[in-house]
């Protein structure tokens, strides 16, 4: 089996993105940050996994949040030998504000930690920057996000890594095409039909 994993903070729109890319509606917890079980779909020998949302959610036990983060790290480590692609989804509108809040408290933001971890463990990592339709200065914001994650701006130098999208509006074509290219790269173009939506 081979696998594509999706990771991201709760409420960044992973479920909507999943639906836009694969035409499958995934289970959501009753409120953000309350599910620890991954959602998975299988196509031939490809597993596509939507990992539970991580990060601190108000009203959700801190210990539960730590358990979710530990589960994600353990899951990726245990399945690293079959993961061909990891896609980290972030919220383009709130990413910088949340990251700066944690940095002021002397912590490394969880998204930064996750991005570094994925790059250590997985052979290919994409960053899907969602909700870009709500961002006022897209290029400026993407440059700042790239910098926080250790990529030297401008973000346009990282078009093979950073994909600005708007899942709710169905604007995910750049990411869909990049996933197709990854499947072709590993000589598995037979798996491309798993991707729904417009044909490029």
Radius of gyration: 16 Å
Q: What is the share of helical residues?
A: 25-40%
Main β-sheet, spatial strand arrangement: 2-3-1-4-5-6
Say how many strands there are. 6
Name the helix and strand elements from N-terminus to C-terminus, one letter apiece: EHEEHEHHEHEH
Distance between the termini: 26 Å
SS-derived structural category: alpha/beta
- Spans with pLDDT under 50 lasting ≥5 residues? none
Q: What coarse outline follows from CA principal-axis ratios? A: globular
Beta fraction of the residues?
Answer: 15-25%
| Sheet of most strands | 6 strands, mixed
Query: What is the overall number of helices?
Result: 6
Average pLDDT: 91
Notes on the structure:
The chain is of the alpha/beta class. It contains six helices and six strands, in the order E-H-E-E-H-E-H-H-E-H-E-H. A six-stranded mixed sheet has the order 2-3-1-4-5-6, with helices on both faces. The chain is globular and about 45 Å long. The model has no long low-confidence stretch (mean pLDDT 91).
């Amino acid at each position: 089996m081979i696998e594509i994993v999706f990771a991201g903070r709760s409420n960044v729109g992973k479920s909507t993105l999943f639906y836009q890319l694969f035409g499958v509606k995934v289970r959501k917890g009753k409120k953000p940050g309350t599910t620890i079980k991954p959602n998975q779909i299988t196509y031939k020998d490809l597993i596509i996994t939507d990992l539970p949302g991580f990060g601190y959610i108000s009203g959700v036990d801190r210990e539960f949040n730590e358990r979710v983060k530990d589960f994600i790290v353990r899951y990726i480590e245990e399945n690293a030998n079959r993961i061909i692609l990891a896609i980290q989804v972030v919220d383009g509108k709130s990413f910088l504000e949340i990251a700066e809040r944690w940095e002021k408290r002397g912590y490394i933001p969880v998204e930064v930690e996750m991005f570094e971890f994925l790059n250590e463990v997985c052979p290919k990592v994409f960053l899907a920057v969602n909700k870009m339709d709500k961002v006022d200065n897209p290029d400026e914001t993407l440059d700042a996000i790239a910098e926080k994650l250790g990529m030297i701006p401008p973000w346009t130098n990282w078009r093979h890594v950073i994909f600005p999208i708007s899942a709710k509006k169905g604007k995910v074509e750049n990411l869909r095409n990049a996933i197709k290219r990854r499947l072709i790269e590993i000589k598995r173009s037979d798996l491309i039909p798993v991707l729904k939506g417009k044909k490029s």
